[in-house]
Amino acid sequence: MNNQLLEQLEQIVGKDSVRLAEPMSRHTTFRVGGPADVLVTPDRSALAQVVALCKKEQTPYCIIGNGSNLLVGDGGIRGVVIETKGALNTLRADGERIVAGAGALLSQAASRAASQGLSGMEFAAGIPGTVGGAVVMNAGAYGGEMKDIIESVTVLDQECREKVLSVEELELGYRSSSILKNGYIVLEAVFHLAAGDAAQIKARMQELAGQRMAKQPLEYPSAGSTFKRPEGYFAGKLIMDAGLRGYQVGGAQVAEKHCGFVINRGGATAADIVKLMEDVKCEVERQFHVTLEPEVKMLGEF
Ligand SMILES: Cc1cc2nc3c(=O)[nH]c(=O)nc-3n(C[C@H](O)[C@H](O)[C@H](O)COP(=O)(O)OP(=O)(O)OC[C@H]3O[C@@H](n4cnc5c(N)ncnc54)[C@H](O)[C@@H]3O)c2cc1C
To answer: Which of 67, 109, 216, 299 is close enough to 28 for a disulfide, judged by CB 3.0 to 4.6 Å?
Structure first.
């Protein structure tokens, strides 16, 4: 990374918001990943300037939220990692709407909705991502998905212009959106919810949190469901039926509590996780002729 670029980044985001050789294991819920050359945490206006600078200098950049759906390679990430969590975490209620910055945690947005007596975000309260990451992934759980509650999303387009997209324009599908395809960056989302009873909304959130605690290996680092749900099947059940419960490669393991999760039992490397995912994919294919596709996003050098 050249010094001139670093100085310019520091001018844009401030010295304290620029970290060099930053271990990505600190920024992913898997607790895995080598160093990013540079990691910055810009606010909304600085973010556009950082992207414009990277484009001008032909320096690669990528965007992360809470790192809860990411597997970062042991070789780390070349170029600039832009983290939204931190400086882009605005949150406000406006009638039946919650307006949230991309870096706000989904759990915080859901909790604000509950306090305002707004129903619709109950399903999202236990998803450990940011609003930006959840929009991009069309995160969902317990019969709900982001698509059901998004009214509009403000993005930064490839020319670094802000653009407001309607829910239709986001083309939200199963863990997919037009944002990833077009290389947009989510800046803010507006959720349109329905008036409800605050106590009931909170009770439903607690009930779902209890279900998560009972079924998911939340005591270990992971990135949630490792594979997408194949049409007509459940990835976790296929993996369990293949006899892979507890299967381990180095520090990575198919969780005993829920075979859909790969967990870091301690000291796992990205290479361990990749090898384990490949083994699982091969075995499920061999036994059931079903192809598992990763849900986790791979970033950096493996
Ligand atoms: C214990 C556990 C349980 C989980 N349960 C669920 C669940 O029930 N349902 C579910 O859907 N997921 C679940 N997940 C996965 C994960 O929390 C979601 O996919 C979440 O939406 C990812 O958000 P993030 O901010 O962590 O995104 P990251 O992991 O940081 O990024 C994910 C992708 O989004 C991109 N991205 C992030 N922010 C932006 C932005 N502002 N603009 C453009 N691109 C961006 C990244 O480049 C990357 O491609 C779970 C994960 C864990 C660890």
So the answer is: 67
As a whole-number percent, the residues of the chain with pLDDT over 90 amount to: 96
Q: Is 152 a catalytic residue?
A: no
| CB-CB contact of 88 with 103 (8 Å) | yes
pLDDT higher than threshold 90 for residue 64: yes
Residue 282 alpha carbon to ligand 1 centre in Å: 25
Mean pLDDT, rounded, for 106-120: 97
- Is 91-205's fold the same as 217-299's? no
The CATH number assigned to the domain with range 91-205 reads 3.30.465.10
Q: Sheet containing 185-192: give its strands across.
A: 91-94, 97-101, 185-192, 150-156, 162-166
Catalytic: 295?
Answer: yes
- What average pLDDT does this structure show over 137-152? 96
Q: What is the mean pLDDT of residues 268-274?
A: 98
pTM for the complete prediction? 0.96
* CATH node for 3-83: 3.30.43.10
Domain spans, the chain: 3-83, 91-205, 217-299
Residue closest via CA to ligand 1's atom 34 equals 133
Structure tokens of 271?
């290479």
63 lines ligand 1 (CB under 6 A): yes
Q: Which of 175, 177, 188, 222 is catalytic?
A: 175
CA of residue 187 to ligand 1 center, whole Å: 15
Assigned CATH for 217-299: 3.90.78.10
Q: Is 225 one of the catalytic residues?
A: yes
